[in-house]
Amino acid sequence: MQHLRIATRKSLLALWQAEHVATLLRAAHPKLTVSLVPVVTQGDRILDRPLAAIGGKGLFIKELEVAIEEKRADLAVHSMKDVPGELPEGFGIAAVLPRADPRDAFLSKTAARIADLAQGARIGTSSQRRQCGLRAYRADLSVQPLRGNVDTRLKKLDAGDYDAIILAAAGLIRLGLESRITEYLDIKLSLPAVGQGIVGIECRTEPDLLALLAPLNHEPTRQCLDAERAFAARLGGSCQSPIGGYATLSDGSLTIEGFVGAPDGSQIFRQSLTGSAHDSALLGRTLADQLLTAGAGNLLASLRGMAE
């Protein structure tokens, strides 16, 4: 295999991530040529409704997988926080890059910190997870939906449509927009989404493809991601469910912290668990079981009932 085609969304961030992977592949395999295959996804087309109302983050992924299935592309590059828990048969995450900053970022032209926002300030986010944390921290804020790519969201903030917005720090940093970040939110306030800050490479699980992509895999990040995705899969959550999961490594031990909350912030279940990094997926599932037993199971069941 001498040429690889990368399916990618057309947003600036998606193109940056795809080109970054292309550069890494060319460095790892000097004789390899790599090209991008831009694709417009359903998530990019529908911007007037919250993601939770139209099928969730998987809408950013499906058309890319179709391009791979139809052999118009060989692989796709994703922000792992957007990737559903189950992949199509015959597909896998072949490699993940070293994790960037996993935190949420607070952006405002009127307040230096989220604590400084005026009573009733308008803050934009379409993430159920972020909405839950914001409402639990400051119930007075007016949390309003915010869709679009990074550039569109920044323009809405600059136009005065919002007093503040919340975005993933990693995306802003990758686009050279770190100076726009007013405050990095502590994970005690806003636990990252599962896979946040991680770029992953999805492909058909064919030996030749897997061999080409293997040099790009960062195993410590992979262990953390495996724990987080196992945690989310065991919870059986959805885009209607505020769920956060974040794993870290230290001296061969992995610690995963997870939370499940109500969208209005009225209920939050949060625990952490530490064990061997070799048992990362098991740790994720065990933490999920602990939260389910503590009451998160009833909450998730009620949220699923409301969504049906």
Walk me through what this model shows.
This protein has 308 residues and is of the alpha/beta class. The protein has 3 domains: 1-97 and 198-217, Periplasmic binding protein-like II (D-Maltodextrin-Binding Protein, domain 2); 104-184, D-Maltodextrin-Binding Protein, domain 2, CATH 3.40.190.10; 218-308, Porphobilinogen deaminase, C-terminal domain (Double Stranded RNA Binding Domain). The chain has 10 helices and 13 strands. It has helices at residues 12-28, 42-45, 51-54, 62-69, 128-137, 150-158, 169-174, 207-213, 219-235, 280-307, and strands at 3-8, 33-38, 75-79, 91-96, 104-108, 122-124, 142-144, 164-168, 183-184, 199-204, 243-250, 253-261, 268-276. Strands 2-1-3-10-4 form a 5-stranded mixed sheet, with helices on both faces. It has a 5-stranded mixed sheet with strand order 7-6-8-5-9, sandwiched between helices. The longest helix is centred in the last third of the chain and has 28 residues, at 280-307. Residues 51-55 have low confidence and may be disordered.
